[in-house]
Structures are given as structure tokens and as C-alpha cells.
Design brief:
The protein is an alpha+beta fold and 82 residues long. It has one domain (2-60). It is built from 2 helices and 2 strands.
């Protein structure tokens, strides 16, 4: 039943340009960040996630939120906000 409830969120985030994976009651979203436009896309997806959670009166567990960099080059100076 929970999957039916959050299925709309997967569509919203996919349209925002990020890949989404669900694990039980957790969400993983990711995208390749090559430039500052990609950073803006990720921030937009985060904003849409927050808006959706506010609409449905769900809390985002900030303590469980993380980011991970994979690659040889150091990451951009990213300041994504939830």
C-alpha cells in the first residue's frame, strides 16, 4: 500500500531529471553531476521532494540524508539544501 502512496513521487523526481530507487520506506535519488547545471537539476529535484512531503504532511529524516561522490576529480563546491 505504501508503494502506491509514494508512486507519484517517483514520477515527479523522474521528470525533474534524477534517477530514483525505493527501498522499503527509503528513497535513493542520484544523478551524474558534471557541471553547475546538473547541480541546479539536483537542487530542483530536492525542492520538489520537499514540496511533495509538505503536501502529504510527511517528514524527511534529515539525519538519514547523505551525499556521495564517486570519481577521481574532487567534487564541485556543492551546497544542496533540503
Amino acid at each position: 500500500m505504501f508503494v502506491m502512496y509514494i508512486n507519484e513521487l517517483a514520477d515527479i523526481l523522474h521528470e525533474a531529471g534524477v534517477t530514483v530507487r525505493f527501498f522499503a520506506d527509503d528513497l535513493q535519488k542520484y544523478a551524474r553531476i558534471n557541471n553547475y547545471v546538473d547541480i541546479a537539476v539536483m537542487q530542483n529535484a530536492l525542492d520538489q521532494l520537499v514540496d511533495w512531503a509538505d503536501l502529504w504532511q510527511l517528514q524527511i529524516s534529515i539525519t538519514k540524508c547523505n551525499s556521495m561522490h564517486i570519481g577521481r576529480q574532487p567534487p564541485f563546491s556543492i551546497d544542496l539544501k533540503i
